[in-house]
Amino acid sequence: MADEIQKGLEGVVVAESKLSYIDGDAGRLVYRGYAIEALAREASFEEVLYLLWHGQLPTDAELSAFTGEMAAERTVDDAVVDLLEDLAAADERPMAALRTAVSALSADDPELDADDLDAALRKGRRITAKIPTILAAYDRIRNGEDPVEPREDLGHAANFLYMLDGETPSDVAAETFDQALTLHADHGLNASTFTSMVVASTMADVYNSVTAGIGALSGPLHGGANQDVIEMLLAIDEAGDDPVDWVETKMQEEDWRVPGWGHRVYNVKDPRAVILGERSRELGEQSGDSTWYDYASAIEEHLTDKGLPEKGIAPNVDFYSGTVYYQLGIPVDMYTPIFALSRVGGWIAHVLEYQAENRLIRPRGKYTGPESAEWVPIDER
What is the pLDDT of residue 2? Predict the structure, then answer.
C-alpha cells in the first residue's frame, strides 16, 4: 500500500477539516454545516468569513465589529502602489501582479514577527481586506487612471466594484457580487488550498501561504475556466453563430472541450453553478440584454440533451460565473484574480485550522530511475 501511487492524490485523504463538505453525487456544498444555498441567499461575504475563521455565525455586534475592522484595513501602503505601477508598466498579468503585491504586503505588517495563531488571523484579515484594493488599483493604473481610495461605508463586495470605476454600484450589482464571493470562499482541499496548507505546515507565515495559493490558482487547470467560458461566448457573438452550432463545429474540428464543464469532485451540476445561473438570468432581465445567459443556457441544454450529465460531466461554478462578472462590467482578465479575492478566506481558514495541530506535510515519491550508475569522467562522456 505504501508504494501504491495515486496520481494527483485523487481519492487520498490527507487531513480532517470542519470547514467545508462536498457531496459530489448529490451536488451539495456546506460551510461548517450551513448549506451554500442558505449562505448565498442570507449571509454577507463578511458573515461567511467570520463563520470560516471563527467557527460560528457572528452576532450583530460581532459582525459590526468585524466588518469595521476589515474596512479599516483596506488601504495599502504607497510602496505597494508604486510596485503596481512598475508591474503595469511591464504589462504584467493581473494574477502575477496580485501574487507579487500580496507578498510585498508583509513589509508593512505591524505584527510580522508574531507567530501565534491569533496574530496569524489578524494578518489574514489584513490580506483579505487589501486584496480588493490591490486588484482595483492595478486595473486602473494599467488603464492610465489613478486608483480610487476604498470606502469604509461600503461592504467588501460593493467597495471593490466602487474602486474599479469610481461609481457606487447598484444594490443588485453589489448583492450579486457578494453572492459570487460567498460561493467561491471555500471548497475542500482543492489545489490552491492544499498548496497553502503545505506551505503552512512548515510553519511559514500566512503571507507565504497565501502567496503560494495565488500561484497555484493561476494555473489553467485550477483557476481561469470562467475566463475561457466568456471568451467562448464572445467568440460566438462576434461570429454571429448559433451557440449550439458553434460548439458542435468546434468539437468536431478540434480536440476541444467546452470550458466550465466537468469537475474532479462533482458528478452532477455544481450547486454554485445553479445559483450563478439564476443570477446571470436576473442580471440579463434587469438590463434588457440576456445575450450571455441565453448563450450559456442554450449550450447547457444542448449538452444535457446529449447526455453529458449522465456521464458525470455537468456545469461547474465557472460556467456561469463569467457571464455574471461580464454583466457587472468586470474586465475579463480579472476573473481569476477575483477568484483569489474570495478564496483567500478559505485559504486562511485552512491554514489556521491545520497549524492548530500541525504536522509537516511530507509525502514520498516512488523512485523509478537507475539503481546503480558508474561515474564517467567528463572527458570520456
Answer: 58
Provide φ and ψ at 240, rounded to 5°. 70, 25
In terms of Cβ atoms closer than 10 Å to its own Cβ (0-12, 13-18, 19+), residue 272 is: buried
* CB 267 within 8 Å of CB 190: no
Instruction: Kindly report, residue by residue over 150-170, the tens digit of the pLDDT.
Output: 999 999 999 999 999 999 999
Is 20-209+335-357 a domain of CATH 1.10.580.10? yes
For the segment 251-271, the average pLDDT, to the nearest whole number, is 91
Task: Tell me the sheet residues that pair with 261.
Answer: 315
Alpha carbon 358 to chain centroid distance? 25
Among the CATH numbers 2.60.120.260, 3.40.50.720, 3.40.640.10, 1.10.230.10, which is that of 225-328?
Answer: 1.10.230.10
The helix or strand, by DSSP H or E, that contains position 327, with its residue range, turns out to be helix 317-327
Q: Which residues are catalytic?
A: 222, 263, 318
**Looking at this protein, which amino acid is placed at residue 55?**
G
Q: Which three cell numbers stand for residue 245?
A: 452550432
Residue 6's φ and ψ, nearest 5 degrees, are -115, 95
pLDDT (tens digit per residue) in 274-313 = 999 999 999 999 999 999 999 999 999 999 999 999 999 9
Task: Note the residue count of the chain.
Answer: 381
Q: What is the rounded average pLDDT of the residues 61-71?
A: 98
Q: What pTM did the predictor assign? A: 0.95
- Is residue 352 a contact partner of residue 116, using CB atoms and an 8 Å limit? no
CA distance 104 to 39: 33
Closest Cα partner for 127 from 305, 331, 346? 346
Enclosing H/E stretch for 23 = strand 20-23
Single out the residue of 96, 83, 167, 35 nearest to residue 337, CA to CA: 96
SS3 261: strand
C-alpha cell, 358 = 500541525
Q: Which of 342, 314, 330, 320 is nearest to 183 (CA)?
A: 342
Query: How far is Cα 299 from Cα 357, in angstroms, rounded to an integer?
Result: 46
Residue 244, C-alpha cell as written in the block: 449550439
CA angle 251, 255, 261 (to 5 degrees): 65
